[in-house]
Write a structure and sequence with these properties.
By secondary structure, the chain is α/β, with parallel strands linked by helices. The chain has a domain of about 90 residues: Nucleotidyltransferase, domain 5, CATH 3.30.420.270. The chain has three helices and seven strands. A five-stranded mixed sheet has the order 4-3-2-5-6, covered by helices on one side. The chain has a two-stranded parallel sheet with strand order 1-7. α3 links the parallel β5 and β6. The model has no long low-confidence stretch (mean pLDDT about 80).
Length: about 140
């Protein structure tokens, strides 16, 4: 019984790229699936502005969204009427009086539609409401 030891070529020192590509593709798929879930609130087409307020970006705001169909959402929960919205906002503000509110209104809405929600937020005890805009490039 002869035993083969060593070999003509010696140790192969090339990097095997196939497992690396497999891992990178799995990570890519994971990021593609998870990224859409990171958006908070409802998806709306924001109006454009020339400047934005960057100072308040540190605190985690409560997201209010008004869609083009004039449906109001708190985070991703739809509010059926102003009374329900007022109750939800009062509950959120009671938990944290310094809670920031970020209002994302669709660009197709009239000013009065957005103003109604701002008035409800004021009535709920909010100190102020920040408006979400898309910065012009």
């Amino acid at each position: 019984m002869a035993m083969a030891t060593g070999g003509k070529g010696g140790v192969k020192n090339d990097i095997n790229v196939t497992p690396l590509v497999d891992v990178v593709l799995v990570l890519l798929i994971i990021f593609m699936v998870v990224t859409p879930m990171l958006q908070r609130g409802k998806d709306v087409q924001l109006p454009q502005a020339s400047a934005s307020d960057e100072e308040g970006e540190k605190a985690d705001p409560l997201i209010l969204s008004i869609t083009a169909e004039k449906e109001t959402y708190v985070e991703s929960d739809q509010m059926m009427n102003e009374t329900e919205l007022l109750g939800r906002l009062q509950t959120e503000i009671a938990q944290d009086a310094r809670k920031r509110l970020l209002l994302k209104g669709d660009a197709s809405l009239a000013y009065g539609d957005v103003r109604k929600v701002m008035k409800v937020a004021r009535d709920a005890g909010a100190k102020g409401v920040a408006l979400g805009v898309e910065v012009k490039k």
